[in-house]
Structure formats: C-alpha cells, structure tokens
C-alpha cells in the first residue's frame, strides 16, 4: 500500500502506464485497498495529479470490476467504500481546485448506485438529502450533480416493478427537499436580495443559476416515467401563466449572466430556458391532459415566438436554446391538440419568420465546414429521430438549428398541413433558386450567391421527407413533391460539375440529396451516379470526398426484398479503382491520429471489399499490403475504435473471399499478417489484440485438416493466465482454441495440453457470469474433438466445477447452458460417449446424483430451449431415454415415464418448427452477418468490449447432422429399444399418459405401447402449466392497464374526429342523388393490424359480407330500412391486416388495395388524407364510397356501421348542388376532402372501439387466467398431497414389515 502514490503517478506516464496498472490491479484485491485509496484521494497534502489519478482508478474499478466474479472485490471493502463516498464528495466540494476530482468521485457514486442502490445501499438518498444546505451553493451543486447522475438512468429504462420501486423510494425521501430547494432558488433568482451581487458571472448569483439548471435536470428525471403526485399537485405553481415558475423563468434575462454571442457555451439563463422547454416537450408527449388545464402551451408559444421569431437570437451561444425551442414547436404541432394555433396566416408566418431564417447557412457553419470538417460531417449526418434523453444543458438532443427547423417543417407536413406547408415552401424554394440563377458566376462560386440555392435544397429535402432513419435514409416521401424530378432539374448539375465550377457546399448538398433519397431511386439510376461519386473521391475538399465515401457505402449496403441490391458483378469494373482511391485518401492523411480520424473512408473501403468479393483477387496482394501498412501507422497511437473495427473487418473480408475462390492464396495472407500480429501481441496493444485472435482463428480454420507448424508457438501463449485477463479477447481466444482442437486434438492430448484447456475453462471462464457462455462453447469443442476414453480422466472434475458454480452463483442463463451441455454430450454420436458416459460420471460424484440433475435441470429446461437448440435437445433427450442402460436401472427408471411424456409433447407442439432445416444457405447467412456490423459499430469499444468481426465467422457445424428427421429418429430408436428390452419398454409406456400412447398418440409412437395408461398430469407438468398461466396473467394485466391508459386519449381523438363526420353528414344531407343511373360502390373496410381485442375485426368483416349479401341485418340500408342491393363484383379496399386476412378467404377477387401500419397510435388526419389520396389515385372507378367500421356505443360495446360518401359525379348531379354555379375543381376538391373527412372519422371511432375491446378482452383473459390458477393450484396441491400420502404409506408399510 505504501507504493500506491508512486504507482498512480507512474500510471500517468505512457512509458510506465501498463506496468503500473498491472501492479494496481494486483493491489486492488487486498483487504482495505478501496478505503486506503479513498483516503489518498482526500489527502490534500498529496500532489493533485496523484489524487486525480486515484479518483479515475476508483471510477474504473466501479465501472469494470465492481461485480467481477473472478478475483472479486471484498464485500467488506465495498461496504466501507459506500459509507465513505458521499462524505468524500462533500469534502471535495469545499475547494474549487478539486472540482475535477469531485466529478470523478461523483461518477463513482453513480456507477456503484446503478448496481447497488437500493438493495445494498438503502441509505444513499438519506445521506444526499441530509447534506442539502440553504446557504452553501457549492455543497448543493455537488449533491445535485451526483443525484442527477443517479436519476438520469431512469430516462432510458423500460418500465418495470423494480424501476418504479426505486423511483418511489427516491421520491419519498427526495421530493420534499427538492421542491423546497427549487422554490428557494427560483425566488433568489427572480427577486434577488439587495445584498446579492447579480452583475458577476462567477459569484453566488451564478452559482444559484447553476443550481437551477440541475434542478431542471432532476425535474425531468422525476417525470420521465410517470407523474409524481407531488409534482401533479404543484402543476399550477410550475406551469400556469402568468405566475408559474416556468413562465417567469422563460422571461428572465439577467444582464450579469449573459455571455458573448460568439461563445460556444450557452449562458446559464439559456440553459435554464432550454430545460424548461424540454420539460414542456416531455409533458406534451406523456401528460398532455395536464397542459390542457390552462393556457400553458399558448403562453409558452408566445414566449418562444418572442425569443426566436425573426432570428432574434443569432449568436452561437443561443444555438442550444433555439434548437430546443424549435423542437418544442415540433412537439406542439405533432400533439394535434393545438392545430388551431398553426392554421391560416400563422403557418406562413412560422415558415417565413422561424423556419427559413434558421435553415439558412450561417457564417459559423461555413467556418466549421472549412476549419472542422469532421464536426461538420458529424452534425449534418445527425439522425433527427434520435431520442431526447440527453442532458438538458446540451440543448435538447444535439441537433443543429437547421435540423430542428427542418423538423418543424416535417411536423407541419405530417400533421394535416401538408398541402399548405408544401405550397408555401415551394415559393421560398423557387425564390432561392431564382436568386441563385440571377447571381453572377463569380458570386455563385467565390461570393455568397450559393447560399440561396443551398437553403432552397435544404428546404426541399425537409418538406419532401415524411419518414427517415439514419441507416435507410428517407423511407417515405411527401406525395406532393417529386424528389427525382427536382434532383434532375436542380441538383444533378452540381453533382456532375467539375470541382471548382460550383461552390463546394453545393456539391456536398448534391451528394447529401442523393444520400438521403437513395431508396427512391432505382438500381440503374444508382449505378449511373456511382461513377460520379467515385470521381468526387479525388476532390481536394475534405467534406466532399468524405460525403462521397459515405454515400457509396450506404448505396452498396441497400437491401431490398431481404437481399443485397448490389452484387460483385455490379461493381466489377469500378471496384479496384474505387478501393485504390479510398486507400490513397487514407494513406495521404499523414500522422496516426489523422489517418484514423476519418472512419467513413475506411468503412467505405470495407463495404467495397465485402461487395466486390472475388473481383479483387487479381490485385489482392497490393490491397493487403496497403491495409497492413495503414494498420502499422495507426497502431502507433490507436485513437478511433470505429476505424479499427473497419480495417480489421476489411482484412478479414478480403481474406475470406479471396481464399474462398483461390485457396492457394492463404500462405500469402499468413506471411503478410503474422509479422504485424506478432508485434501487436508482444507490445500488448490492447485495442487490437481481440481482433488479432479472431483473425488468427480465421486463418487456422481455413486449413482443412492439420495445424501448420507456424501456429504451434501460439499454444503456450494461449495457456498463459495474463492472456485471458482482457475481457474483449476471450471470444477470439475461444475460437482460436476451437480451431486448434478441431485440427490437432490428438497432438494436444499427447502433449498434455487438453488439461491446460480445461484449466482455462474451470478457473477463468465457468466461474465468471460474464464469460460462462464461452466456457461452455470451449467445453463442447473439447467433448466433440477429444476421444471420450482420453477425456474420462478430466470429465469428473469438469462436472464438479459446473455443479459448484450451480450451487454458489446459479443464474437462469447458466442453468440453460448446463442443461444444453448435458444434452449435447448425450446427442454426440461418438464411440465411447453418449448418455451412459454422462450419467456414470455424475453418479461417481455422488450416488443417485443424476436423478436430481435430471429432475431439477434437464427436464424443466428442454421446453425452454431456443429454436436454434431444439433439434439438439430432442436428439439428446431421445438418446438419453432410449440408449442409456443407466436410465433403466432402479433410481433412474422412475423418471422415465414423465421424461418420455414431456419428450412426446414437444413433437405435438410447434417446438421443432423451423429447427430441423434451414432455408438459408451459407452465402446468405454470411451476407446477413456482414451487415450486422452497421448496428454494432456505434458500440464498438476498447478493452472491455468484444468487437465481433462478422467476416471472420463461419457457419456453426450441426452436432446432430446425422439426424435429418427427429420424429423418424425417435421412432427408430423406440423400435431398436423394443428389440433389446421389449417387456420393460411396454411396462414404461403403460405408465405414461394415455394420450401419449393411446389412439391420439403422435405418429412417432405408432404401435409403441398400450393405450390403457393413467390419464393424470404429473406434478411437474402442473407446475410448468401453473407458471405459464401466471406469466400469461401478468401479460394480460399489463395489456389491460396499457389499454385503459390509452382509452381516454382515443376517446378524445374520436370526439374530435366525429366533428369531421358530422360536417360530412350535413353536406350530404342537402346533396340528394338522382334516382336513375348505376351507382358503383367502393367498399372500404376499417380495421387494424393488431389482435388480442376480441371479435372487433370479425365484426366489420361479417358486416361487409352481410352488405354484399343484402340480408336484413345489412349495415347498408335505404331510407325505408331495407338492405341496399350491392353488385357482387364491387371493389373492396381494407385498412388493417386483420380484416384483410379474413376477407381474402372469401372475397379475394374483390380486393383491390390494402393498407397497414395505420392507426398504430391515435389516427391523424394525415393518415386519413394519405389513404384518401391513394384511393383516388388507384384507378378504381366508383360513384360512392361505403365505409364499414366499428361504431363506438359505450366503453363496453360497439357495433358495425356503414356510412356512404358521394363521389364527384354524385355531387355534381345532386339537386342541392345544381342550384349553384360552381367550377369543376370545386366539386372534385370537395369530394376528395369529404372522403378524407369520412375516413378520419371512421378511423378514430374504430381506434377507440379497438382500444376499448382490447381492455375488455384482456380483463376477461386476466379473470380466466385467475380462475385457471385457482383450479391448477388445487390440482397441484391435491397431487402433492397424494404423493406425500403414498410416500407415508410406503414408509409405514416398510416399517410394519420389519
């Protein structure tokens, strides 16, 4: 312990860091280390750098080793540290110079609290609240920062009983002091006493403002999952205008706390206002009914307008507040409760005064484009769908002003203002294009003329986008905008222009337009622009060539109909040159940091390799050497984990596809890679070691039968304990050992190395909850490739290790892995192995132990096996019951009938569906695996993270490939068993359930045994059934609660939607149609995609059939209440997959169009308008439209109803409209609008019916599940009592016999 300061100091020196960290790790397991470290951190006499290093080391222990089960920390040490952390953090808050150390200590508290609070740290909140002070702002800041770091985790958690237990515990202790401190701080800020200096940005007044920013954060934390009663009761105090705290703080602008407009950090008042608007946005999404109690939103809207209207806040320091204000505006528009605020002239004013000024390219953006291109690219690629769970002080969710303003426009387009917003934006777009065209050529390139076109393109992209994701780009577009035509007329010219002839930002705009709308282009169109993108890779502008690389990568990764759109043949001609251009750009960056900076280039190179495949074989050696050279440069200072992932994936992919086509190239890869890999391992470059082991395993796996000589020196390294210390290396090490075992298990056995492999399993992998899955994978490789006779000497100790772990720290995952391993051993078809090998080994440990293992672990786990393991489980189970002599002996044979019953029940269920054969070829699987990196790349990390190289993996071998049909296998095994021991088999089958061996037995048991067996479920079956029903009850109760919560919202939407229907009815009441002439009807059936809501979908389906049959109870009646005659060939369109599947069975010839994904949430007018637009454009001829939907009667009942909407011709010919002179467009527009109105009314009413029906259905299901639980409990208790009674009878009978 005396060397601790010196070791911490040495850990700051790159030359001695690794050795110092290893010594610190060794010290950390000693008793009292954590308390000693904390004392050192608090010792002000020590050098501050040593104390800071100690606080960082303590944080890393909390992050990576707090729950480590290999060399774990002492529980007494952890308890002592928990007791001392909060006082330590408060002590550090006294000295401003210790701010950084305090921050690290607070983060340690947060990390430990995430794991231990409240179960092991119940008094944490008491310590925090007791330390809050009305006079010490520094203490309060420390407490609030720590508290927020604990509570902020709630924002991303899924709702659960455990989560709400923790939240309620915190609220019960923290809420009262929180509200008191909020009121006190707000009062000080709004009405400061004369003694408080408000002119300084660093004094007490600023500290109170900083306190308020943290209080805003915690307010958000407290309300992110549910609305606490205390905050609900104080709603008016916070929100109501004009005296609510939030309302007052929105208008609070103290001059002393302002900052320079060019500062990148927001002022404290701006941070507070940003927090208020994010809270308001949260309430709009989760608690809209609270805001509707007063004019809160209207007042907030006025405040936002005052702040950001007409570009009133142009400074950089205001970016976060402006972005959040725009985000709040978007949320208000999307809520659909305040549509009247945006109608008419207001919409034009919003676009003119708010959207357009914030979309225009600013001088600061231009400076970032030139001086910090990577940051410009990062921000411009930001996905607008990102969650807003980020901190308040960062300005909502990190999006720029442009993106936030564009999102307001998208909200208008998606919330019923599509036509008006599109028309208004098109005026600004045309204005911008005209301004650009009128500018001189010099002004377009060298001056500012290009900004007009840049703004026009950005506005057009925003108004054209209805849905998008970062991976897929734009997924749905505005039907009123032709994105391809706009690209051809105004964007393509910039894309094909030579560098320097147009401004660089316009070329980036053209590439970004193509990137966004790539899914709207056909494959030939994309292939035609690829050469232009390749040409842009040679650009001298950093952003231009990087965007070109990003776009090429995204285009090549497009998947349609479940397959990659582009194959190697599509890029055969351009792939070598494209890859060379990319590598040249990477190589030309210079230093290691600059080379690794641009991971987009490396990712594009990786995508080209994975797409081109064998196309790259002719020049693969040069490509490999260039990749190795780049790896050598960046290994000097690894700095970008994404770049690392992509370069190793590129090497792996190149090796995989080149060697696959030309096996003779493997030695070249080995000769080029062994040298660099040896250096990486020797220098212990920990960021790269996990990749190296995966690639070594891949290379060795490409040798079919033997282990080449050059791989042999690796084995001693693999058995060194230090090699297994880095968690990220373990999967690669396991794969490498598996490759050695598959090709040289006999030599390893002769050299005594199998014992070393098993030592790794028993000492490093199985005891670890994190790595036990890799331990079982390595064990299965040993069992597969080592002869059972050779393995017998070790197998008993292996089983004892597994049972010891089962007893000491059992988890559900470990139980599954243990049962799977036993079935794996039973299923393997190897000489000397099999079920008896396993049973005898386990019974050697303790007599009759197998029966306990079988009953407690194997039998319960078999029905729970995932699909990929089901065939293995069934084959292993079958061999266990039919080939084991030990299972037929006393003590084990009693389990046979129950085990056999459960096995046969697996065949009856859908247990084996999809488990016996795979429809995916190896190539298809590979293709799918390679694309998974896109989802994993963002979490690729160093040290603790395992970054999988998808290209290095091969299809997993099927250990039971000798069985093609498990049912046929069972039949054959029973037949052989009957030949060996027919009498005993008949006796055992007679003891099974009659439904198993009787007339209704599965085909696998045809003729297997008599049908007079008992017909009573075993206790185990009852227990499993009881557990299943209880789980179902939990689900149905949860669904009922969710439906109950949604019902009020659905009813409000229905009430609003009915107004549209009433308006339609009033119009058509005066539009009587002529009696003569045909009336072609189009039927639209309104249902949804979701089930579990009773017979609500069948209701409209049956009503549709009755309408076509013109029966007396048809929903479509004349004024005399007689059924209307309907042409049997009338077209039908269906909204919702449920009614579609029902009607397609009997009326498939009538179906013309179906819609899905509508009404997943409360239907909006935009949904209805979209349906109406597609109906009109479908080409189906009709005179009127009949909507069949569910009519809401009450919360517990509904009925099918029909409403008829006249078409354009019907309106023109009606007597009511003939009395007026009208233009043709009027009746056409009215007919379209009326159809949308009627669809909207039907959708909202049907949605309310569905939610109500789901609540009732789940209520009934919960009650039925409760009844079943009572019944099953009674059966179980009776059966258990009968078993106990039988045992007592046996005992008494045996005693009396003595």
TrEMBL record:
Q: Where in the cell is it found?
A: Cytoplasm; Mitochondrion inner membrane; Nucleus
Q: What keywords are assigned to this protein? A: ATP synthesis, CF(1), Cytoplasm, Hydrogen ion transport, Ion transport, Membrane, Mitochondrion, Mitochondrion inner membrane, Nucleus, Protein transport, Transport
* SMART domains attached to this UniProt entry: IBN_N
Q: What membrane topology is annotated for this entry?
A: Peripheral membrane protein
Fetch the Gene3D superfamilies from UniProt: 3.40.1380.10, ATP synthase, gamma subunit, helix hairpin domain, Leucine-rich Repeat Variant
Q: Which GO terms describe its biological process?
A: protein export from nucleus; protein import into nucleus
Question: By its UniProt entry, which CDD domains does this protein fall under?
Answer: F1-ATPase_gamma (cd12151)
Domain Importin N-terminal as annotated: residue spans: 20-91
Q: Which domain of life is it from?
A: Eukaryota
Give the GO cellular component terms, alphabetically.
cytosol; mitochondrial inner membrane; nuclear envelope; proton-transporting ATP synthase complex
What main location does UniProt list?
cytoplasm
Record GO terms (molecular function): nuclear export signal receptor activity; proton-transporting ATP synthase activity, rotational mechanism; small GTPase binding
* NCBIfam families assigned: ATPsyn_F1gamma (TIGR01146)
Q: Which family does it belong to?
A: Belongs to the XPO2/CSE1 family. Belongs to the ATPase gamma chain family.
Question: Cross-referenced PANTHER family, in alphabetical order?
Answer: EXPORTIN-2, IMPORTIN-7, 8, 11
Q: What is this protein called?
A: ATP synthase subunit gamma, mitochondrial
Q: Which organism is it from?
A: Favolaschia claudopus
């Amino acid at each position: 312990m005396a060397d601790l300061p010196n070791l911490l100091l040495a850990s700051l020196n790159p030359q001695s860091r690794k050795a110092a960290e290893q010594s610190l790790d060794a010290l950390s397991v000693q008793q009292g280390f954590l308390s000693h470290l904390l004392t050192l951190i608090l010792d002000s006499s020590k050098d501050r750098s040593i104390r800071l290093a100690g606080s960082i080391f303590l944080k890393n222990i909390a992050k990576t080793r707090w729950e480590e089960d290999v060399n774990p920390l002492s529980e007494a040490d952890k308890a002592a540290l928990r007791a001392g952390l909060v006082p330590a953090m408060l002590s550090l808050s006294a000295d401003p110079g210790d701010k950084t150390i305090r921050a690290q200590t607070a983060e340690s508290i947060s990390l430990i609290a995430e794991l231990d609070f409240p179960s092991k740290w119940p008094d944490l909140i008491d310590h925090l609240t007791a330390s809050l002070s009305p006079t010490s702002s520094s203490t309060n800041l420390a407490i609030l920062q720590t508290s927020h770091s604990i509570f902020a985790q709630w924002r991303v958690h899924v709702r659960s009983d455990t989560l709400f237990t923790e939240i309620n515990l915190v609220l019960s202790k923290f809420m009262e002091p929180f509200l008191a401190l909020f009121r006190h701080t707000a009062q000080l800020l709004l009405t400061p006493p004369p003694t408080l200096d408000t002119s300084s940005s660093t004094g007490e007044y600023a500290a109170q403002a900083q306190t308020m920013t943290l209080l805003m954060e915690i307010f958000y934390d407290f309300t992110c999952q549910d609305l606490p009663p205390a905050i609900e009761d104080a709603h008016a105090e916070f929100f109501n205008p004009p005296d609510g705290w939030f309302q007052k703080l929105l208008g609070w602008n103290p001059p002393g706390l302002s900052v320079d407009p060019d500062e990148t950090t927001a002022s404290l008042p701006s941070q507070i206002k940003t927090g208020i608007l994010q809270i308001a946005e949260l309430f709009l999404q989760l608690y809209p009914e609270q805001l509707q109690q007063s004019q809160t939103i209207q007042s907030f809207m006025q405040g936002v307008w005052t702040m950001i209207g007409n570009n009133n806040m142009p400074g950089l320091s205001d970016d976060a507040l402006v972005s959040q204000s725009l985000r709040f505006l978007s949320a208000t528009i999307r809520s659909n409760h305040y549509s009247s605020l945006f109608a008419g002239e207001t919409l034009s004013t919003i676009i003119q005064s708010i959207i357009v000024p914030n979309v225009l390219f600013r001088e600061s953006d231009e400076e970032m484009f030139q001086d910090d291109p990577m940051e410009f690219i990062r921000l411009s690629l930001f996905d607008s769908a990102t969650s807003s769970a980020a901190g308040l002080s960062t300005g909502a969710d990190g999006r720029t002003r442009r993106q936030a303003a564009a999102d307001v426009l998208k909200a208008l387009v998606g919330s019923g203002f599509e036509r008006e917003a599109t028309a208004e934006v098109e005026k600004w777009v045309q204005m911008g294009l005209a301004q650009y065209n009128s500018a001189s050529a010099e002004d377009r390139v060298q001056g500012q003329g290009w900004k007009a076109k840049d703004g026009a393109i950005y506005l057009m992209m925003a108004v054209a986008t209805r849905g998008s994701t970062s991976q897929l780009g734009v997924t749905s577009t505005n039907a009123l905008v032709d994105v391809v035509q706009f690209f051809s007329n105004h964007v393509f010219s910039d894309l094909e222009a030579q560098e320097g002839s147009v401004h660089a930002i316009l070329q980036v705009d053209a590439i970004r337009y193509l990137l966004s709308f790539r899914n709207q282009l056909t494959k030939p169109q994309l292939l035609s622009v690829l050469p232009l993108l390749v040409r842009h890779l040679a650009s001298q502008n950093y952003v231009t060539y990087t965007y070109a690389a990003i776009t090429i990568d995204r285009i090549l990764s497009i998947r349609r109909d479940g397959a990659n759109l582009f194959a190697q043949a599509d890029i055969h001609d351009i792939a070598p040159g494209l890859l060379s251009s990319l590598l040249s750009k990477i190589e030309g960056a210079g230093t290691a940091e600059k080379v690794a900076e641009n991971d987009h280039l490396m990712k594009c190179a990786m995508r080209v390799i994975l797409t081109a495949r064998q196309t790259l074989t002719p020049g693969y050696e040069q490509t490999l050497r260039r990749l190795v050279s780049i790896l050598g440069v960046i290994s000097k200072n690894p700095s970008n984990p994404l770049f690392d992932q992509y370069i190793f994936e590129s090497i792996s992919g190149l090796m995989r596809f080149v060697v696959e086509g030309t096996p003779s190239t493997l030695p070249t890869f080995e000769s080029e890679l062994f040298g660099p890999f040896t250096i990486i391992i020797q220098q212990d470059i920990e960021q790269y070691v996990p990749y190296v082991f995966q690639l070594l395993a891949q290379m060795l796996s490409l040798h079919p039968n033997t282990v080449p000589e050059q791989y042999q020196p690796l084995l001693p390294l693999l058995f060194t304990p230090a090699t297994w210390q880095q968690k990220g290396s373990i999967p690669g090490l396991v794969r490498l050992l598996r490759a050695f075992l598959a090709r040289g298990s006999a030599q390893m056995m002769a050299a005594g190395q199998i014992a070393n492999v098993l030592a790794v399993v028993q000492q490093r992998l199985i005891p670890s909850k994190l790595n036990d899955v890799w331990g079982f994978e390595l064990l299965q490789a040993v069992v597969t490739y080592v002869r059972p006779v050779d393995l017998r000497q070790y197998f008993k100790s292996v089983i004892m290790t597994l049972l010891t772990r089962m007893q000491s720290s059992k988890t559900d995952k470990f139980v599954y892995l243990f049962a799977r391993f036993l079935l794996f051993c039973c299923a393997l078809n190897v000489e000397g192995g099999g079920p008896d090998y396993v049973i005898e080994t386990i019974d050697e440990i303790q007599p009759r132990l197998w029966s306990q293992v079988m009953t407690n672990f194997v039998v319960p786990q078999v029905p729970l096996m995932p699909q990929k393991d089901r065939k293995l489980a069934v084959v292993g189970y079958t061999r266990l019951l039919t080939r084991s002599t030990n299972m037929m002996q006393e003590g084990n044979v009693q389990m046979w009938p129950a085990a056999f019953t459960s096995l046969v029940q697996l065949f009856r269920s859908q247990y084996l569906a999809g488990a016996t054969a795979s429809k995916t070829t190896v190539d298809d699987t590979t293709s799918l695996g390679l694309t998974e990196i896109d989802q994993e790349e963002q979490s690729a990390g160093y040290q603790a993270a395992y970054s999988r190289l998808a290209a290095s993996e091969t299809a997993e071998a099927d250990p039971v490939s000798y069985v093609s049909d498990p049912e046929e296998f069972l039949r054959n095994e029973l037949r052989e068993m009957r030949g060996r021991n027919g009498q005993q088999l008949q006796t055992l089958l007679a003891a099974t359930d009659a439904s198993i061996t009787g007339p209704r037995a599965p085909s696998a048991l045809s003729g297997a045994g008599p049908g007079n067996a008992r017909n009573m479920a075993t206790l185990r079956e009852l227990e499993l059934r009881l557990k299943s029903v209880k789980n179902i009850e939990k689900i149905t109760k949860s669904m009922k609660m969710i439906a109950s919560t949604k019902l009020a919202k659905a009813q409000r939407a229905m009430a609003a939607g009915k107004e549209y229907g009433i308006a339609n009815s009033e119009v058509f009441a005066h539009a009587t149609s002529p009696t003569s002439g045909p009336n072609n009807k189009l039927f639209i059936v309104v249902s949804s995609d979701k089930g579990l809501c009773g017979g609500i979908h069948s209701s409209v389906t049956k009503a549709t059939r009755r309408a076509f049959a013109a029966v007396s109870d048809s929903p479509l009646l004349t004024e005399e209440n007689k059924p209307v005659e309907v042409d049997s060939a009338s077209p039908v369109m269906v909204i919702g997959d449920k009614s579609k599947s029902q009607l397609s069975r009997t009326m498939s010839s009538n179906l013309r169009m179906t819609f899905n994904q509508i009404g997943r949430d409360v239907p909006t007018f935009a949904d209805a308008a979209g349906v109406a637009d597609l109906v009109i454009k479908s080409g189906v001829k009709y005179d009127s439209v009949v909507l069949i939907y569910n009519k809401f009667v009450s919360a517990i009942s509904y009925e099918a109803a029909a409403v008829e909407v006249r078409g354009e011709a019907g309106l023109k010919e009606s007597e009511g409209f003939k009395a007026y002179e009208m233009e043709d467009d009027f009746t056409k527009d009215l007919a379209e609008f009326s159809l949308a109105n009627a669809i909207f009314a039907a959708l909202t009413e049907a949605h309310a019916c569905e939610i109500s029906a789901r609540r009732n259905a789940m209520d009934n299901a919960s009650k039925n599940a409760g009844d079943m639980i009572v019944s099953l409990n009674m059966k179980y208790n009776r059966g258990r009592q009968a078993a106990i009674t039988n045992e007592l009878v046996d005992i008494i009978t045996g005693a009396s016999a003595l």
